[in-house]
Write a structure and sequence with these properties.
The complex is a heterodimer.
Chain A: E1 4-6, E2 11-14, E3 19-25, E4 32-38, E5 45-51, E6 54-58, E7 61-66, E8 71-76, E9 85-92, E10 101-102, E11 106-111
Parallel strand pairs in A: 2-11
Antiparallel strand pairs in A: 1-3, 3-8, 4-5, 4-9, 6-7, 7-8, 9-10, 9-11
Chain B: E1 5-7, E2 10-13, E3 19-24, E4 31-38, E5 42-50, E6 53-57, E7 64-68, E8 74-78, E9 87-94, E10 102-103, E11 107-111
Parallel strand pairs in B: 2-11
Antiparallel strand pairs in B: 1-3, 3-8, 4-5, 4-9, 5-6, 7-8, 9-10, 9-11
The chains are: A mainly beta, B mainly beta.
């Protein structure tokens, strides 16, 4: 079993819908949680960065962490075709680049 | 501020050859990490360099090596290429090697 599980999709939703992307994990030591967006033929771009449990909002994006359930989510409100990309969750027990474990990514498509 | 740059963007090699990839981090960032991204294994950590020293290493064979120069630019080298080395190689930089990584566009390596 992988330390971080993420549904690969693809997930297709109409423009304007609320998108929910999720990851589960098994290592209770994870404390830092990240979401990256990766467009085709590009490198990942950091979208959200949270520490421990709780919610964090940035514009149309909201990240939620539930450490008791070992479950994290990314919500995208008012989704746009430009949001079509692969979304990777990532997590780490420390603030250290070498310890980051990435999910396999969910491919998201927003239909105009 | 200019982002992370990687050269070349695409590379085709044959089995047994060696390859050198280059990465220029964001100005002021002292940590450079390298990752391999494949459809089957996702994003996997190769190694991290900080102030010209390899600080951390992932679970890859010794054919994968790297170095960092005094201006923080980094190179990674893969010797005796195998078909399974075909992947997107990503470089990421951060000020001190923490979780907030900024990725370059990657080098797409194809081994024939």
């Amino acid at each position: 079993q992988k330390e971080v599980e993420q549904d690969p999709g693809p997930l297709s939703v109409p423009e304007g819908a609320i998108v929910s992307l999720n990851c589960t994990y098994s290592n209770s030591a994870f404390q830092y949680f990240m979401w990256y967006r990766q467009y085709s033929r590009k490198g990942p771009e950091l979208l959200m960065y949270t520490y421990s449990s709780g919610n964090k909002e940035d514009g149309r994006f909201t990240a939620q962490v539930d450490k008791s359930s070992k479950y994290i989510s990314l919500f995208i409100r008012d989704s746009q075709p430009s949001d079509s990309a692969t979304y990777l969750c990532a997590m780490s027990p420390y603030s250290s680049a070498s310890k980051i474990i990435f999910g396999s990514g969910t491919r998201l498509s927003i239909r105009p | 501020k200019a982002g992370v740059t990687q050269t070349p963007r695409y590379l085709i090699k044959t089995r047994g050859q060696q390859v050198t990839l280059s990465c220029s981090p964001i100005s002021g960032h002292r940590s450079v990490s390298w990752y391999q991204q494949t459809p089957g294994q996702g994003l996997q950590f190769l190694f991290e360099y900080f102030s010209e020293t390899q600080r951390n290493k992932g679970n890859f064979p010794g054919r994968f090596s790297g170095r960092q120069f005094s201006n923080s630019r980094s190179e990674m080298n893969v010797s005796t290429l195998e078909l399974g080395d075909s992947a997107l190689y990503l470089c990421a930089s951060s000020p001190q090697g923490d979780n907030e990584q900024f990725f370059g566009p990657g080098t797409r390596l194809t081994v024939l």
